Amino acid sequence: MLLFVLRRIGVMILTALALTFVVFYLTNLPPNLEKLAKSEASARMTDEQVDSWLASNGFAQPVLTRYAEWLGVLPGWTGTSSDGKPMGRCLNRIPAGETPPAYCGILQGNWGWSTVFKQPVSEVLGRSLGHTGWLMLWVMIVMVPTSLILGVLSGMREGSRTDRVLSTFAIATTATPEYVSGVIFIALFASATAGISPWLAEMGWIEGKTLFQGTATSAMDGLTFWNFGLPVLTIALYGIGYIARMTRASMTEVMTQQYIRTARLKGVSFREVVMKHALRNALIAPFTVIMLQFPWLLNGVVIVETLFNYKGFGWTLVQAAGNNDINMLLACSVVAVFVVLVTQLISDIGYVFLNPRIRLA
Amino acid sequence: MADWDPSKPILEIENLSISFFTRAREIPAVMDFSCSVMPGEAMGLVGESGCGKSTVALAVMRDLGKTGRIVAGSIRFKGRDLTTMTEAELQKIRGSEMAMIYQEPMASLNPAMKIGAQLAEVPVIHEGMSKSDAWALARQIVADVRLPDPDRILNAYPHQLSGGQQQRIVIAMALMSKPALLILDEPTTALDVTVEAGIVDLVKALGEKYGTSMLFISHNLGLVLDVCDRICVMYSGEAVETGNVEQVFTEMRHPYTQALFRSIPLPGADKNARPLISIPGNFPLPHERPPGCNFGPRCDYFQAGRCDAAEIPMFPVPGDRHASRCLRWDEIDWTAPPAKRVAKEKLPVGEVVLKMEDLKKYYSVSTGAFGGGATKVVKANETLSFEAREGETLAIVGESGCGKSTFAKVLMGLETATDGQIMLFDENVQSTPIQKRGADTISQVQMVFQNPFDTLNPSMTVGRQIIRALEIFGVGDSDADRERRMLELLDLVKLPRAFAERMPRQLSGGQKQRVGIARAFAGGAKVVVADEPVSALDVSVQAAVTDLLMDIQRQNRTTLLFISHDLSIVRYLSDRVMVMYLGHVVEMGTTDQVFAPPYHPYTEALLSAVPIADPHVEKKRIVLEGEIPSAVNPPPGCPFQTRCRWKSQVPGNLCEVEVPPVQVLEGGHQIKCHLSAEVLAKMEPVIKIAAE
Predict the structure, then answer these.
(1) Does a structural domain hold residue A183?
(2) How far is CA B268 from CA A20, B262, B341, B364, in A?
(3) Which is it for strands B527-531 and B559-564: parallel, antiparallel or unpaired?
């Protein structure tokens, strides 16, 4: 088991290296650097000025060297600026008087400076991941039990009326992308002019103008049902349909297995057949799917956080990508790789506990 | 049940009709079926696949699914009508008063639950027993079904047990509440013969111990004779004959029963002098049944205008509750020998075409699930030496895991040998994989596979598949030429030429196997490996397919390597027999030599385990103890020493230390055993045919 986990971690590091190099290379293409120079220094620089700015800020070195510096396996560059001040990768924002370290890459815990947020990347990332963490947590709390219950209910009697109604619901939700359902929710519940809010306000049943708040900005200071309900629902709904379909398929298959017939003909009641015999077997397949939902949530988070103006990981990623914030983007890709591979690891290990036929070496 | 008189039948089925309802139509599966089972009695339900025997069993359990419905008749269990019971009442009876044992033990155990929990569930539900008492009872019953180390087994998951052990657990589960009626649906079909023998013994002993009545469903007539007191033969949804087992087996009064017996290889049958007689035609589909007698179109005694006039009821026949669904049961001369039996000439054997010398095939497997772990060597074939001549049938016999399929793969070139030689004609092929073999060699060595349902491409017409084989073998110069050859091949396997346009799904199992045979012979194969070619087919079809293989062999002088676990059919059609156990050839000789003493101890047990559907046959019962050892971890010394009943006759611990040498007895009969010649000479025959 330990060997297996170690091997997985090795794979994770390799993947992270490969992915970050790709992102590094793409964000460091000449047009991107030119754009960076113009946004950092002056928009009206000549080409020569851009070149000298890039040279004095360390961007003139070969890509591989700079990638190694970012990793922290090569010493950071040093040089002098046009006005004679000493410059260097590790010199930035070091309190005066202290000697700068030779290496300052991510191995040293230095994630670099975010050019968009004018703050260290680690600070921005930490804060935004915290926000997104809350969002994900609530999405999972809503999504997983709901979808499993829906899936099991519709799968235990295939073709029944319950099954058809629930299946229709599941297909409808999973066929509606977040940017559609999010907009519909805002219009229905969080608009002062459309949906049910004006009517509720007229009846005097709600205090403000809208039932739910259309933005989740205030949720960053304090979560309430009213400011956080819509973003959570928007992300969860899509996943509910998807996982419910998976669970249903798995459940219907399990219900036709011979051992279910054995249980039934042992005199076990239908309820017990479902709870004791079918459930565990039926959850093996959806478990993997649920774990796969985590990385996928990152994707949904980008749309929903932008839509509801919630400054989490997704929103940060959009900002960073829009402004070619190299360090921020690199950090985001490391986080993405980490999330994907860790959930996979959990999924594989959890699978072993659910399915006694599989044992890890 | 206070109001039930134990002298009355425990299960009484009267005029039961069951239909399955699909969107298109109602499909009658069982019609007008009646039978009764007395307390302590074992009733056998026999018939080919699709005849409705399993449907009857499920109807008794009232578990026909959503589409199945009982449309008429009654099923009375201990005097109470099951057909009108509510779900809650049924739940009380199921598992406590009647229990069922299924065909595939692996599929019928919950893979994610421990054995103990699955067993203990029964008394907890039905008797409100506490969990610890239930586990204690489970432990006792597990010991009752003769499983070693009950504590370990209770805490195991189903996949950690072998097939035979799983079936014992299913039986234990059925016995947890000491039911009055036990329904066994082909309980041993998925198991090896020696394991089957153990299970059958167990079922019989438990039946006696607990006084349980049994409804035993099987397609194997020999097994029914072994286990049951009474029998009911079913054909196309109807009971055609019912009565005492011995009476039905010796004085059958229905043409179908008679035809069935004539199509199975009994010890007296011989491929040349007394060939099997297959039942002509095909089983009617449920919605295409003929008017009147369902068996009419395939019956030798059919009389137009009488047999197809009206539905035929059961007629009582003198004897022990004997009845037959035949209008002419008292007109037919049942003792007359079959008219169509044509004796054929024995085929002389020719030159040696295939020769194997010290063939070895080892696999190395790693034990870890993700790579890692120690590498072990599986010795699938150990020093295999034999030769096969032109026109000869060599049977290779053994249970699962004995290495017979590996041997076939090596010969075909799907695997290459680890060591040793394979001479095909004058060519060395042991280390040539099939990709490197010439079209010539490939077309000369062909294979007929076990499962005809999976070996044909479902989206290609039959004709196209055969033409494809011809193209690959380089037969014929033009498309027209190959087309003609393909039609000739269809003639050869006795399929109508119109079948060339059909898709495999439109064919029955027997017809598919014929296509498989046509494909194998497309390039004029000289050596054909038939890997259990008939074991997936119904009894009546088996005879026809076997016959066909023999005919083609006669015409082409093909060498047939017939791989099988079914000793009856091997005895019937092979010239020489090779018995394998755990990769070793333990005995080899002509069919007469192998089937008569002296035997190798394993052959002896194998012969004794095969159920024979003839009450005149007296068999010595030898049940092997224990499981077949795993090929990954074979026992030291003689591979069979862990289960051998003759081991004590060998001085010292020779059997455990040394692999026995091959003893050559008179007539070239080879036995790989440490037993001395004197002991071997004293062996008695396992099968004796009592004088009639």
Answers:
(1) yes
(2) 78, 11, 14, 44
(3) parallel
Query: Are B173 and A262 within 8 A, CB to CB?
Result: yes
A101 and A137, same domain (yes or no): no
Whether the model pTM is above 0.80: no
> What ipTM does the predicted assembly reach?
0.73
Could you list the residue range(s) of the whole structural domain that residue A47 is in? 2-108
Asked whether residue A93 is assigned to any structural domain, the reply reads yes
A116 domain residue, yes or no = no
Q: Which residues contact A33 (CB under 8 A, 6 or more apart)?
A: A54, A59
Q: Do A3 and B61 touch (CB under 8 A)?
A: no
The answer to whether residues A81 and A139 belong to one domain is no
Other CB atoms within 10 A of residue A119 CB: 15
CB-based contact B490:B464 (threshold 8 Å): no
Same domain, residue pair A330 and A187: yes
Q: Quick check: A258 and B108 CB within 8 A?
A: yes
- Phi then psi for residue B30, to 5 deg, are -135, 135
Give me the CATH number covering residue A206: 1.10.3720.10
Are A159 and A274 found together in one domain? yes
A87 and A207 share one domain: no
Find all residues with CB under 8 Å of B403, minimum gap 6, and list them: B361, B380, B381, B382, B580, B582, B583, B631
Q: What residues pair up with B401 in beta bridges, in sequence order?
A: none
Phi then psi dihedrals of residue A316, to 5 deg? -60, -45
Residues B32, B35, B36, B37: is their CA dihedral positive or negative? negative
Contact status, residue B643 vs residue B625, Cβ threshold 8 Å: yes
Q: For residue B110, give the nearest of A4, A259, A265 by CB distance.
A: A259
Give chain A's length. 361
| Torsion of the alpha carbons at B283, B289, B292 and B295, rounded to the nearest 10 | 0
What lies within 8 Å, CB to CB, of A223 at 6+ separation is A134
- Contacts of residue B437, defined as CB under 8 A and 6 or more positions apart, other chains included, come to B413, B429
Domain boundary among A56, A80, A108: A108
Same domain, A212 and A335: yes
Helix, strand, coil share (%) of chain A residues, nearest 5: 70, 5, 30
Query: Alpha-carbon torsion A54, A57, A62, A64, what sign?
Result: negative
Please indicate, yes or no, whether residues A93 and A197 belong to a single structural domain of this protein: no
Gap from B363 CA to chain A (nearest CA, Å): 21
Tokens matching residue A179: 């940017």
DSSP string, A72-115: TSSPPPEEE-TTS-EEETTTTTPPTTSPPPS--SGGGT---EET
A166 in a domain, yes or no?
A: yes
Please name the amino acid found at residue A254. V
A281 in contact with chain B, both atoms CB, cutoff 8 A: yes
Strands (E), B582-649: 584-590, 617-619
> Which of A3, A7, A266, A279 is the best residue to mutate to test the B interface, defined by the most B CB atoms within 10 Å of its own CB?
A266
Q: Under 8 Å CB-to-CB from A178, ≥6 apart: which residues?
A: A234, A235, A238, A300, A303, A304, A307
Q: What are phi and psi of B619, to 5 degrees?
A: -120, 145
Interface check for A357 against chain B (CB to CB < 8 A): the answer is yes
pLDDT in tens, B196-213: 888 888 888 888 888 888
Rounded to whole angstroms, how far apart are CA atoms B128 and B389?
67
| Confidence check: pLDDT of B97 > 80 | yes
Domain count, chain A: 2
From A74, A108, A142, give the residue that closes a domain: A108
Same structural domain, A100 and A190: no
Q: Do B370 and A361 touch (CB under 8 A)?
A: yes
CB pair distance less than 8 Å for A257 and B107:
yes
The burial class, CB within 10 Å (0-12 / 13-18 / 19+), for B558 is buried
At A267-306, the pLDDT tens digits run 888 888 888 888 888 888 888 877 877 777 777 788 888 8
For B503-534, the pLDDT digits (tens) are 888 887 788 888 888 888 888 888 888 888 88
